[in-house]
Specification:
The chain has 188 residues and is of the alpha+beta class. The chain is built from 6 helices and 8 strands, in the order H-H-H-E-E-E-E-H-H-H-E-E-E-E. It has a two-stranded antiparallel ribbon. A two-stranded antiparallel sheet has the order 2-3. A two-stranded antiparallel ribbon has the order 5-8. Strand 6 and strand 7 form a beta hairpin.
Length: 188
């Protein structure tokens, strides 16, 4: 949902995405979803800017542990990565509070030239978890999101009913799309 909301807020990025999708559809079907660097970048930036949870890689400490610096974590505590804070940290991202849809376009590349994909595990990008136990469904989730966006971009024009509405609702560490937010669709 956040990707749709962001595209509604930044309609100037719609046409480049449509152009990319139209070019992709002219390729053999086996190459379709290997050639969408702008869409991959858009999805990755949305996930960076609007993570579904402000915390990630949550783990319960099973036995007392002391780090090399002397920090002690007693058994029973939960430790985690402050995902939202990391993904909005200027040490890792230029202009971290800005939504820059094509921030990752160069890295997402085309086909074999891509150095990263939306599904990749990278330091400072914890959407899919950590390298030891990443989300096993990330490829499926990415494929579904890309197919959904291809359909949406080729078949509909869309916008937020209220462009100034708050997009999110937060409960504890979870960030939800705001209930009741409406998107207006019109066939192309």
């Amino acid at each position: 949902m956040f990707s749709i909301f962001r595209l509604c807020q930044h309609p100037d990025y719609t046409q480049p995405l449509i152009n990319e999708v139209e070019a992709m559809l002219k390729l053999p079907p086996t190459d379709h979803y290997n050639n969408l660097p702008l869409l991959e970048s858009f999805l990755r930036e949305t996930a960076r800017h609007d993570p579904l949870d402000s915390l990630s890689v949550q783990r319960k400490v099973l036995k007392d542990f002391t780090f090399a610096d002397g920090t002690h974590v007693p058994a029973g505590n939960v430790i985690c990565v402050p995902q939202q804070a990391v993904m909005r940290d200027s040490k890792y991202y230029d202009r971290p509070d800005d939504f820059l849809p094509f921030r990752f376009a160069k890295e997402c590349g085309v086909g074999n030239d891509a150095t990263q994909k939306f599904t990749d595990l990278k330091p400072h990008f914890y959407l899919w978890g950590a390298t030891a136990k990443p989300c096993p469904g990330r490829w499926y989730a990415s494929a579904v999101m890309q197919q959904f966006f291809v359909h949406l971009l080729t078949k509909y024009n869309f916008k937020l009913e209220n462009p100034k509405a708050d997009l999110t609702y937060t409960y504890t560490t979870i960030v939800f799309p705001r209930p009741g937010l409406e998107i207006l669709l019109r066939e192309r």
